[in-house]
Automatic annotation (TrEMBL), chain A:
Belongs to the acyl-CoA dehydrogenase family. Residues 165-271 form the Acyl-CoA dehydrogenase/oxidase C-terminal domain. Its cofactor is FAD. It comes from the Bacteria. This is Acyl-CoA dehydrogenase. Residues 6-84 form the Acyl-CoA dehydrogenase/oxidase N-terminal domain. Keywords: FAD, Flavoprotein, Oxidoreductase. Coiled coil: none annotated. GO terms for molecular function: acyl-CoA dehydrogenase activity; flavin adenine dinucleotide binding. It comes from Streptomyces finlayi.
UniProtKB/TrEMBL annotation, chain B:
Its cofactor is FAD. This is Acyl-CoA dehydrogenase FadE. It comes from the Bacteria. Keywords: FAD, Flavoprotein, Oxidoreductase. One of its GO terms (cellular component) is plasma membrane. PANTHER family: ACYL-COA DEHYDROGENASE, ACYL-COA DEHYDROGENASE FADE29. It comes from Streptomyces finlayi.
Amino acid sequence: MDFQLTADQRALRQGVRDLLARRFDREALRAAVDAGGELDRDLWRALGEAGFFALRLPEAEGGVGLGLPEAVLLFEEAGRALLPGPLIDTHLAAGEVKGAAEGEVVVTAPYGHFVEHLGDADVIVRADKDALNGAMKVRSVDPLTPLTRLSRRTPYPYPPEAVLLTAAEQVGTAARTLDLAVQHACERVQFGQPVGGFQAVKHLCAQMLVRVETARTAVYAAAVTGTAVERAAAKLLADEAAVRNARDCLQVCGGMGFTWEADVHLHLKRAWVRAGRGPSKAEAEEELAAALLGDPA
Amino acid sequence: MDLAYTPQEEEFRTELREWLARVLPGLPERPDPLDWPGRRAYDTTWQRMLYDAGYADLQREATPTQHLIFLEETERAGAPYVGANFVGLLHAGPTIAAEGTPEQQERWLPPILRGDEVWCQGFSEPEAGSDLASLRTKAVRDGDHYVVTGSKIWTSHAEVADWCELLVRTTPVTPDTPKHKGITWLAMPMDAPGITVRPLRTLAGSTEFAEMFLDEVRVPVANRVGAENDGWRVTMVTLSFERGTAFVGEVVACRRTLAEVAREARTNGTWDDPAVRRQLGRLNAEFMTLWRLTQWNVSEAQKTGGVPGVGGSVFKLRYSHARQELYDTAAEVLGPDAFDLDHDWTLDRLSSLSYTIAAGTSQIQQNIVAERILGLPKGR
């Protein structure tokens, strides 16, 4: 047993982090916010060139030939950076939809009552011809994710791999909001000391770390085993970690956290939207409960 | 990232399973929880069986993964717990192995591994709990002895122990001597004159803990491990690195209990309440992931030789809370039986209350995590 990242996996994670720092820095993030989440096609192609979409495509088909454990590392970084776009749908379409693997086309798909980034999408999958009849663009709560509301719930289930990759993005948000909270707590001085010196603030941050480590472990384990029950656990813990960490980050940042200027609201809103993908909290808990009556581990 | 066990690890597991199946039926009846000499005899008999089979010193002789497998399999097979041998095997022994002289190691380690000698821990004091370094039990040098006076609390197995790993103050706290600098680690023989042990009854009614009063107890200077006034560091050497295996058996046991609670809910009809079902599902995610986190920490220890104690803090914070939630949920499922002390889960619910307090309260653990991992400033 060796449940740790391999040297290659660590290098892959670092490579993506560096790429995103170069190609999607804070200035680009805020530009994307101002553009209402409209996609930067050059960036999309750069992601394609870096193998972001072709990661799990076999090498014989021009892909990178890696698996879900590597994919969750990539999507954790995407979540951390708040990278916009239907990344998961395009990743899943690699090899199925021409140009998806290379980042030449943007692929989206409906889930539940919504479809994301419809305006930017070249191709829509998992949708019948009349799926968009009566669909209306809404004023999205998340400034980085344009949402179109369908007139009826899509009959297509959210793919299991998409559930896991969404959970990986949520871990990225949980980790990043912890970083933002710690940074603020070390810099902000009140009552003559950094506020991070107060136990009340320390304990919020410590619990944020506990959530990150727990959710990340659940996501990595689900990526390695591929079982439905571990995926449900990953979904449950990652959604909770992302939303609660973003909330606690907002709290630690105080008044600054409530401004448009601070990035924390972008994470919170994104975490809310991501939590709406795939099975609901209740459905995940029911699946996990049912599993208890089967093989008792 | 790989969760599969190697052929060597599987072979270790198979041999262990076969051995357990062979020897467990021959164990004597479990003694009454209040029969301390009986419990000591039972626990040391088990330790001797482990010793004879070559499983006594896995801490040093096996890989962290083999140690994990050992703890997982013994729990699954319903083998005895480490019990009265806990301090000797998991703290005093490793401390002596790391910091003792060759003579001290020769004197104390083999009897621990054979189950011949039992150790207890004299660290906490009535006025020194979370703030352990403020301990006041005093040791004054008199020739080749220390003369020790003071009191200790939460000393488990004190009634039946042969030795006590004792922290004493050898230099008073002054503006020039911070509290951590004046502490010394001693091995105190429990039959020395001047030791009074008084059982401490917990809210669960059990008496595994004791108070210990020391009145001019003479301890040979030769029983000091490490230098005088260096006892804090000597103690922390063992506490600060662990193999991630501290809670392996307990997590396995909690997962089994959770499945039993689910089956009980199904039987008695509480399963039909979606709130109960969903809470059980949530706990399944919780304990499944705590098991994966254990495997993660053990894999890390396998690579690096140890998990920093702060990694253990993250695990303990989550686990101690989850354990309390598990038994609260069990009580909800049990209904009227939850008020019956003869039901195991009722007693386990009571003892789960200690988990967020013992071995560093959750509040202290959060300070440790915030300061040592996240780098937040020390303060109030």
